[in-house]
Amino acid sequence: MQYKDTSTGYGWISIVLHWLTAVVIIVLLFAGSSIAATDPAERAAALNFHTSVGISCYVFLWARIIWRFMVGHPGPNRRQQGLFFELGKWTHYVLIVALGGMLLSGPAMAWASGTDIVVFDWFQISAASEPQFGLRDTLHLVHRSCAIIIFVGIIAHLGGVYKHTAFNHDGTFVRMILPSKK
């Protein structure tokens, strides 16, 4: 079984991390966008769900980020090359960096608000200081900007999937479903 990436493809570790991260990010994006609900109870529930999912997946998401930077991005297969390969590779890295920005700014934003982080009523992580609303507003801007970057990156990423699947027929999509051979 091919667990690690090869020079031109992904192993099972990268494939599983990719797809689980994709599911978590989509859930977090939808939950995050519903935080703006006008009803205070709905807003509180959406914020709690978003925060709970984010914190529950925190270590896993950092593992995804660290794995990609430790292992690097596989090179092109024999039918990939040039500018589009480089754009795809850097889109992946931008998504990973924006995810890291979300993971840092989210909890920090809650704590700067003076708010404890409650995770599905299982446990809570207390805020360590009094509210610092200026810092909270800056962290909210960072968090929101990273969310926009991730959303745009996902659209670009899906465009690349479509291009490779519908036009190039170069096996790129299969690389994210089945591990490459050595």
List the helices and strands and how they pair.
Elements: H1 12-33, H2 40-56, H3 58-71, H4 82-112, E1 117-119, E2 123-125, H5 133-168, H6 172-175
Short description:
This protein has 6 helices and 2 strands. The chain is mainly α.
Question: Explain this structure to me?
Answer:
It is a single chain. The longest helix is centred in the last third of the chain and has 36 residues, at 133-168. By secondary structure, the chain is mostly helical. It has a two-stranded antiparallel sheet with strand order 1-2. Helix content is 68%, strand content 3%. The protein contains 6 helices and 2 strands; from the N terminus they run ααααββαα. The chain has helices spanning 12-33, 40-56, 58-71, 82-112, 133-168, 172-175; strands spanning 117-119, 123-125. The model has no long low-confidence stretch (mean pLDDT 90). The protein starts with 11 loop residues before the first helix and ends in a 7-residue tail after the last helix.
Residue share in β-strands: under 5%
Mean pLDDT: 90
For the secondary structure, the number of strands is 2
Q: Unreliable runs, pLDDT <50, ≥5 residues?
A: none
Outline: elongated
Work out the radius of gyration: 18 Å
Q: Outline the biggest β-sheet.
A: 2 strands, antiparallel
Number of helices: 6
- What is the H-and-E element order? HHHHEEHH
Distance between the termini: 10 Å
**Global structural class:** mainly alpha
* Range of helix content: 55-70%
Strand order of the largest sheet: 1-2
